[in-house]
Records
---
Amino acid sequence: MTAAPLLLVWLALASTPPSPAPAASPRGIYSLDDDAFVAQAQRDLAELERNTQGLRRLQEELKQAKDLYAQKQSVPYTPDQKQRLLTTWAAFFDYFLSTEVIRQRYWDFVKVPALLQPKKHAWGFLLTHGALTTELAHGLTYAQLTNGRKQLEVLLDEPSPEYGLPPRAFARFKDKVIHVATTTQLYTGDTYKEQLRPLLVKAGAVDAPRVPWVLQEMKLNSEVARGLLIKRGATLFAKAAADVTQDTAQRAFFPVQRSVAEWMGDTRVHRSGKPLIRREQVDALIQRMEPGDVMVARQNWYLSNIGLPGFWPHAELYVGTAPELARYFDGDPGVKAWLATLPGTPATFAGHLERAFPEKWSAYLQKDAHGDALRIIESISEGVSFTGPEHGMRVDYLGVMRPRLSRVDKARAILRAFGYQGRPYDFDFDFFSDQTLVCTELVWKSYAPSQEMRGLNVPLVNVVGRRTLPANELVRVFDAEHGREDRQFDFVAFLDGREGEGLAKEADEAAFRYSYRRAKWDIAQE
């Protein structure tokens, strides 16, 4: 079959189960010029690689817990077993859905003329088929393990806001991965890939970063998916068909509707650098903040921190500027007494930071790319970094909590955070290693209680068999302790994004307390 009929087959089979007619879609990613398109495609390819690595780690967890999935369905799961099953499913759901977002963002490559726009056509195929083969290899493996187990399916399909799981997530997952159209796209795409190689060379994509990886990944994932379809396809499809027949709900959670999928893609591309929180809101909030404040942040549709559950994906430590440090700490008797016990008896807290970390202090005094003073320490993909308000606070949602601790405890926490600055980001979310740190790990370890420091007692939770701390847990603790004399945080502010209105509004403490219960991926954000 030639390339043109193959594309016609692909396009004809692209439809998903019937859904309401979509509204008019905004501009797609293919409206970008070639350079901007390729740059975005390379970023999404890096995201796809991270998703794939995460799914492979989850496969190891599934192997270790194989007996749990094979447990007799007449034996009820214990609370600990339920937690393990749900955290694994929540992480899998994250990786799978974020991969589907990438796939649908580039789906229109089938409408882009290969001869006239070779770069867009070639890169669009790489992202689309790379995402599809990843979904099917890992999705069919998970479906084979879970399919037909009634107690397990009921558990996975129930809404679990604390894990970031909406109602019927598991049913929608099965509907997507066990579907004849998706499977046909796998075979069609594998054939088209071989015919597309000359175009990949012409587009200059073959030797680009991660392209050899994704081509090899397509091959490996396709082999896995084909093997599962040959071995178990009839059983999986028969069971899925029965489930779909019984399922009459109309609201699709997965972004399979074209208008929704394109809107998600456009949000990231066209609203990038245009967060819902305005700069004047950030400037006003800074006037109310103090060194040591803990922030939780969220940007819609940015596929970061995939694998950790909950609405809030990110946490940061507010430090303030050097003058703010001086105003806040230097007159405090407790801080003075502590400084007097340190080598060299530094006169000020800033002086102690400069002496303890001369290179880091020098970096902290610099300006960011926007000309702003650095005020925040956060762990991002580049590592534990000093950042300014444009990066750390101009997001879509921002909550600020103030630890109910002495100023000397906050000074010790900031001192620890300075010590972690420069260390790599922890993509494995391993809280037992100090060599790499995830965002919440930075906050947690900076405020960890010790003999000389009261600190914050925020318990770790089990996520995919590991002890870790999603940012959502910080807000859950805030909510659980609300009104108690021994509460660990006070409320400072909540800037609540409104995607439909294109802005953020100041919300009250009650709204912030509820925020951690919001669905992580629901398009109709509350």
Note: The radius of gyration is 25 Å.
---
Amino acid sequence: MPYSTKKLFTKFLKWRYRNISNRTFIQIMSLIVGFLAGTVAVTLKNSTYFIESLLKRGIVFSENQLYFILPTIGLTFVYLYVKFVHKEPLQHAVSSIIFSLSKKRGLLKLKDIYSPLITAPLTVGFGGSVGLLGPAVKSGSAVSSNLSRLFHIDAKTRTLLVACASAGAIASIFQSPIAAIIFAVEVFTLDLTMMSMLPLLLASISGVLTSYFFLGNEILFSFSLSEGFKLKDTAFYILLGVGTGFASIYFTKMYFAILSLFKKLKSPKYKLLVGGIAIGVMLYAIPPLYGEGFGFINNLLDGDHLKALGTTPFDNYTDNIWVVIALLFGITIFKAIAMTTTIGAGGAGGVFIPTMVMGSALGNVVAKVINNLGLGFSVSESNFTLIGMSGLIAGVIHAPLTAIFLIAEITGGYQLFVPLMITAAISYLITKNALDYTIYTKELAKIGALLSHNKDQMVLGLMEMDDVIEKNFKPIHPEMTLGEMLHQSVSKSKRNLFPVLNDDKKLIGIIVLDDIRPMMFDTELYDTVYVKNLMHAPPEVIFYETDNMKQVMKKFQDSGAWNLPVIKKGKYEGFISKSKMLTAYRRKLINYSQ
């Protein structure tokens, strides 16, 4: 920033501090953040659709054979961008935001603003079977984070504004402001108070208005409710809830299984090649897997399953409804595979919209099976298509309220509130009991970076180990005599604990002052007793790289110790005292609760 501009900006900040209250400024910022996040979402959507429209004629002209190479071309462009411009591996959008809120005080890099706007359209536009919501939320959150840094906003408020950005992006894409607020609360575990409610609401409204301004009254799903909830269909909605619950477990397990397979391919080029070919084959056999899949959902809602399926190698058999059901069920199975393959191969995209596509297919399958069993039952296939989406969202990302309100808002189908609640609740309960963590949170839980609505766990997750490690302990060598230890370390230390280190600075034991107190004044022992004869193992050891603060607290509880040594990269780093840790915990809790 040039000096003159910096000087003017400093004057503006001083004027702001004097004339605008912090609460008012946050509300203004939430409007701005919502607008910018909405603009990001619109840009992302339009650039992706532009690429898809350019390629559409070629796909039709080649009789779908172009599907074989398009994903590989898109992934190659992404690979080149990441290698020469981004210069670090792409991260899962929502998981990286949660990690930033937990461990980096809500700070996101400047390149996180523009990288999703480049990599996601290239991935999805060329056929990658992922969604745009995650990249939109990541880019919008990065805008919010960097604006917060520019205006010297504190970490707690920065967290709120990042959540506002996610609400603005979701409200813009789905035109569903209430679901956008609930998503921020459920996924980012934000406390919904009056202090946070108003900024989230303002950001959502701003995001929706931005979408209307750029896209007009364009609606995501062309759906009009023809049948409301019927009590006699309750058992079928329960059945759908069970089905979407197990489908959510399959989706999550398949995600991690395929990613683990791609991790075995060390070279990004091999990942690109294997993934691109695999996606191409799937697209040729099942065209609806191309891109996000909103067109597929709309066709199912319109009752046109043949248009939803597109041109497939099985067109000669689609007069048989059971062949159609089998093909739709195939989309349910392969959407998770195609999505994860895209991500594993190096593509950029989210998992939220693929869950909607998979849920819509499964809901439609369940309705078609019920209607064609010949038992005299009849249910609305469009209603089941909608409610299937809510079941998958609730199960896969553990966000049942988001699932309920999102589907209700984007379709105007509030008359389906009861079946939405039934299906989403059952799916969530089944998945939550089977899987402790979601696609977003599993890896974060391993490193202790997971945010939680449990205030104790949340505060422990926000604490940094570096803030509580103490290094003012005098180390001693195992070959030191008692006299050398007393003169060189004990007499110069304010602590009653001494780490014993070998020549490689590795911890091999500890000595507590109480261990040597009876012999401290017996000078005859000064030259005959060595440190190695007096030292003993610590009651527990903290490993810097693998232990999170929750595990550290448990080690204190189990060992009964007041000080525990920290080992970093195999070497002694310092000690953590229980008193300092509890003091830091109390301060963090007070700050978090305000």
Note: The radius of gyration is 29 Å.
